[in-house]
Amino acid sequence: PLIGRDRANALVLIQRRHDAELAAAAFVGSLARLRRLAPDGPDLRTALMDLASVTADRREQQVLLDEVVRREQADSGVDSMEVAGRLHTQATRLLGAGRAADAVALFRETLTLVSAKLPTDDPIRQTVENNLAVALGGTGAWVEAESLQRMALQRADAQHLADADLAGVRERLALTLAQLGRLAEADSLQRAALGSYRRGLAREHPLV
Predict the structure, then answer these.
(1) Among 44, 107, 148, 155, which residue has the least CB neighbours within 10 Å?
(2) How many helices (H) and strands (E) does the chain have?
(3) Secondary structure (3-state) at 166
């Protein structure tokens, strides 16, 4: 019960007061108790994820996330894709909350897991790569975001995607190029995206 109260109090601090420092202290207490009382249970992995989500130091956060993945992979009853799904959900939540740097760390862990199971043209893997690129853009890491998006465009061209889907890939890269100041290249790619949208969508569609 005390472990549950620690976690509940920390979540309230995050949701109502946005006090990550106090929440981290509560999560540390919960994690310490779990390490003593249930060192191999799933609640410990939850506590590690909780603490990682409010840890400001990127290296400390990565250590926590690495332990989560190691423990999940060591549990024969847990599939790595299930772990990836949970990490991706948490990363998406952090990105939506404006915590792009925290989301990047989780998206990277997710990509490591799905890349071990899925080919490069799998839509799940491509979704993770796209979301990682978006999160990278949110931290200002536009060069790395461009690299991911260029690979996505190469795959899209090779797969002969439907026009509307291809347009989205082109447009995301165009926006990144604009952030990098490569406006002529961005303009050309955005025009190509618009042409694809027009071919693939009705004229009154908002994307057109």
Answers:
(1) 155
(2) 10, 0
(3) helix
